[in-house]
Write a structure and sequence with these properties.
The chain is α+β, with helices and mostly antiparallel strands. It has one domain: Aminopeptidase. The chain contains three helices and seven strands, in the order βαβββαβαββ. A hairpin with a 3-residue loop joins strand 2 (30-36) and strand 3 (40-49). The structure holds coenzyme A. Coenzyme A binds next to strand 4, helix 2 and helix 3. Coenzyme A (COA) binds next to strand 4, helix 2 and helix 3.
Length: 132
């Protein structure tokens, strides 16, 4: 089951334990949806800023990976973004994060640019999906 949630200490703990490097932003446009199975096993955070959207992060708890949960969460976000009539969706991902890059490519994101040393010392790839 996928549902919207507000920020909570549970979400912060899941982020810290499974996605150590992520720094929570104070973003007034942010929406969070969680995948719930006797507890939160995945989450997606995205921001709809008028006619464009950003995927902030998508995360599935380690032992639930490769069961299509990340894909379902991304699809849920994409549908909501589409309903809001956005034209462009962008995201940054570490250049060596192959699972995430493959996931985003599967859902139509294209690599557009490299952002040097975006995450501490690591390069990031800017990926974009245009909606028409
Ligand atoms: C990226 C992540 C969210 C994928 O979640 P997931 O539930 O395992 O992904 P799914 O099972 O829905 O896979 C969907 C597609 O993603 C790609 N993918 C997922 N894991 C992959 C892996 N280990 N290697 C290669 N491709 C992978 C595949 O294209 C897959 O489609 P397929 O099953 O038809 O091959 C998960 O690996 C994760 O939480 N990683 C840590 C957090 C992170 O780095 N998030 C992204 C940065 S914002």
């Amino acid at each position: 089951m996928i549902e919207f949630r507000e920020h909570s200490t549970t979400i912060d703990t899941i982020l810290r334990e499974n996605f150590g490097g992520y720094q929570q932003q104070n973003d007034p446009f942010e929406k969070i949806a969680v995948y719930y199975l006797n507890g939160i096993v995945g989450l997606v955070s995205y921001s709809i800023i008028y006619d464009r959207a950003e995927i902030n992060y998508i995360l599935v708890v380690n032992k639930y990976r490769r069961q299509n949960i990340g894909g379902k969460l991304l699809n849920f976000a994409l549908k909501d973004i589409f309903k809001n009539k956005c034209k462009t969706i962008s995201l940054e991902v570490e250049e060596d994060n192959i699972p995430a890059i493959k996931l985003y490519e599967k859902y139509g994101f294209i690599k557009k640019a490299v952002r040097d040393k975006y995450y501490n010392n690591k390069n990031a790839i800017l990926m974009v999906k245009e909606l028409r």
